[in-house]
């Protein structure tokens, strides 16, 4: 849709004999409220987080990716990309050597000092930080503009919106279930209500027992979990099929979640990265919380 409109606009400008420079740039606003402009669609993109890599592939820009960071493992084609360090320890020399025409950074994950250095060197940097499901769709659309893949990106964005809307409607009147979501094991960590995972919990009729904490991903103690006594415990685990983090909670039979058998696993790639896979992860989470309601 956006490509068609742009083509029509260029045609109109030529027909009217107007100058073209105003159309020479592709501009979007990133999640740091910065304007990111390119003179032409990006052809050498570097993604500085696994989530950004996945979003770029979903937006149809996979073939334009020149490199990514470690743990960028989805889709499978992402595993073949050259690595430029990890999201926490960027290899600036390798990034510069690849001469990217677009870098996608992760605001709360990358060392922002390094990101600023890349900007100072003149590299276009899009800073990404989706905090709501609508942000995921909007990011897909923006990447489509910057990569010249608007049609694919728009389709992915619309599909994600429709799927999330269907879940909202289905569970709008669901009885609330108190939930502890375990995002990490050692140290024990969760998420607050500003985190995207908490939006998934709310859509499914859940109530995040640590939602009011100030940090986005706060550290907590097992004693704090025992005090909150959630009806359900949901963990992401260390792998796609490894619910081992749930086992230690069975040592606390006083927990409602343990008593009712409400210890649930959701594959981390489907709920802990801000990508379209969160639709599948949210569906899984909703099914788990529906099981918890049935056992109430």
Q: What is the strand and helix layout of this fold?
A:
Layout: H1 2-16, E1 26-29, E2 35-38, E3 45-47, H2 50-58, E4 65-68, H3 92-97, E5 102-106, H4 112-120, E6 125-128, H5 133-147, H6 150-170, E7 177-182, H7 196-203, E8 206-208, H8 222-228, E9 232-235, H9 256-259, E10 263-265, H10 278-294
Parallel strand pairs: 3-4, 3-5, 5-6, 7-8, 7-9, 9-10
Antiparallel strand pairs: 1-2
Helix pairs in contact: 5-6, 6-10
Question: What keyword list fits this structure?
Answer:
296 residues; alpha/beta; Rossmann fold; 2 domains; 4-stranded parallel β-sheet; 10 helices; 10 strands; 14% strand; globular; disordered N terminus; ABC_Transporter_SBP; ABC_transptr_periplasmic_BD; Cobalamin-binding protein; Vit_B12_bind_prot
Describe this structure in words.
This protein has 296 residues and is of the alpha/beta class. The protein folds into two domains: 160 residues, Nitrogenase molybdenum iron protein domain (Rossmann fold); 121 residues, Rossmann fold, CATH 3.40.50.1980. The protein has ten helices and ten strands. A four-stranded parallel beta sheet has the order 4-3-5-6, with helices on both faces. A four-stranded parallel beta sheet has the order 8-7-9-10. A two-stranded antiparallel ribbon has the order 1-2.
Number of helices: 10
How many domain regions?
A: 2
Task: Please mark out the parts with pLDDT under 50 across 5 or more consecutive residues, or reply none.
Answer: 1-22
CATH superfamily of the largest domain: Nitrogenase molybdenum iron protein domain
Beta-strand residue fraction? 5-15%
What radius of gyration results from the CA coordinates? Answer: 21 Å
**Please, what is the average pLDDT?**
91
Overall 3D shape: globular
Largest sheet: 4 strands, parallel
The name of the CATH topology of the largest domain is Rossmann fold
Largest sheet, order of strands side by side? 4-3-5-6
CATH top level of the largest domain? Alpha Beta
Protein name: Cobalamin-binding protein
Signal peptide: 1-24
Organism: Alcanivorax profundi
Keywords: Signal
